[in-house]
């Protein structure tokens, strides 16, 4: 797949010179496994060229928290609350080196997220609500994926799983996790992984690496939350359904325990009958 000259040009030296000393907001962690739920990392700001060189190091002479801290950049829009990430706007020089695969109509484009990770960094398991390509430009990543149908075994909190260490999970704390079927692939420079919407993924940077994540809208535009700049807010109809369910569960609390249990089971059966896909088994 033709990706342009980025796979050969994007060395540490070239990246540093191409975008210079513009300020970037980054994640800094003293541990390899970053946890968005407990926020075991801090946000810091660095000039881009300084950040790139630090992220490529294993041990640092200059650091925020520890000499072996890990760095992660996930590009955002000019105003992260209102603007989407678009490499053409945030990193225009580097954008010229990339040829994004044309597998969707231009009006479906949502975002192009520029990512840089230290070696050994592991991102939390989560799902996105849009189809996307993970383009590995330099370095190696290991990606572990789980089907949407395995959501009951992933101990979810919103769009994220509580299970951080997918290679050595705490089975006493997460006994159902063993039921989730694991898919795994290794991405090298120039590889492109298609991640369907709602598929859970956990990403481990085996080496210092640079990637580009391209998201597009495959549902009608009105299906998505207009305030979503990251591509991870549930579709509007799904959000409304969850709110209705929460109100229904609150109403069940008015019943004695025996009745509450009975009618909750009836609700589950009705959801299975009306909403589950038959081919899910």
UniProtKB/TrEMBL annotation:
Keyword annotations of the record: Dioxygenase, Iron, Metal-binding, Oxidoreductase, tRNA processing
Pathway connected to this protein: tRNA modification; wybutosine-tRNA(Phe) biosynthesis
GO terms (BP aspect): wybutosine biosynthetic process
Domain of life: Eukaryota
EC number: 1.14.11.42
Catalysed conversion reaction: 7-[(3S)-3-amino-3-carboxypropyl]wyosine(37) in tRNA(Phe) + 2-oxoglutarate + O2 = 7-(2-hydroxy-3-amino-3-carboxypropyl)wyosine(37) in tRNA(Phe) + succinate + CO2
InterPro entries xref list: Cupin_8 (IPR041667), JmjC_dom (IPR003347)
Domain JmjC per the UniProt entry, residue ranges: 89-233
Pfam families: Cupin_8 (PF13621)
Top EC class for this record: oxidoreductase
Cofactor dependence: Fe(2+)
GO molecular function terms noted in the UniProt entry: metal ion binding; tRNA binding; tRNA(Phe) (7-(3-amino-3-carboxypropyl)wyosine37-C2)-hydroxylase activity
UniProt record similarity statement: Belongs to the TYW5 family.
Function: tRNA hydroxylase that acts as a component of the wybutosine biosynthesis pathway. Wybutosine is a hyper modified guanosine with a tricyclic base found at the 3'-position adjacent to the anticodon of eukaryotic phenylalanine tRNA. Catalyzes the hydroxylation of 7-(a-amino-a-carboxypropyl)wyosine (yW-72) into undermodified hydroxywybutosine (OHyW*). OHyW* being further transformed into hydroxywybutosine (OHyW) by LCMT2/TYW4. OHyW is a derivative of wybutosine found in higher eukaryotes.
Protein name: tRNA wybutosine-synthesizing protein 5
Upper lineage: Eukaryota, Metazoa, Chordata, Craniata, Vertebrata
């Amino acid at each position: 797949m033709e990706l342009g000259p980025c796979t050969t040009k994007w060395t540490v030296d070239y990246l540093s010179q191409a975008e210079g000393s513009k300020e970037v907001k980054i994640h800094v962690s003293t541990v390899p496994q970053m946890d968005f739920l407990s926020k075991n990392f801090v946000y810091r700001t660095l000039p881009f060229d300084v950040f790139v060189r630090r992220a490529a190091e294993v041990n640092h002479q200059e650091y925020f928290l520890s000499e072996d801290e890990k760095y992660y950049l996930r590009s955002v829009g000019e105003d992260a609350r209102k603007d989407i990430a678009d490499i053409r706007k945030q990193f225009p020089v580097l954008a010229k080196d990339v040829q994004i695969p044309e597998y969707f109509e231009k009006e479906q484009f949502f975002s192009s997220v520029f990512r840089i990770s230290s070696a050994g960094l592991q991102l939390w398991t989560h799902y996105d609500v849009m189809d996307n390509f993970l383009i590995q430009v330099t370095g190696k990543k290991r990606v572990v994926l789980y089907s949407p149908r395995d959501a009951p075994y992933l101990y979810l909190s919103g769009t994220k799983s509580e299970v951080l260490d997918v290679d050595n999970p705490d089975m006493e704390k997460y006994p159902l996790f063993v039921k989730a079927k694991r898919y795994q692939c290794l991405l090298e420079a120039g590889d492109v992984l298609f991640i369907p919407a709602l598929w859970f993924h956990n990403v481990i940077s085996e080496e210092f690496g640079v990637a580009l994540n391209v998201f597009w809208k495959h549902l009608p535009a009105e299906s998505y939350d207009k305030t979503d700049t990251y591509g991870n807010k549930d579709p509007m109809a799904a959000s409304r359904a969850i709110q209705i369910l929460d109100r229904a569960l609150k109403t069940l609390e008015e019943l004695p325990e025996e009745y509450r249990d009975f009618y909750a089971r009836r609700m589950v059966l009705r959801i299975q009958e009306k909403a589950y896909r038959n081919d899910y088994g």
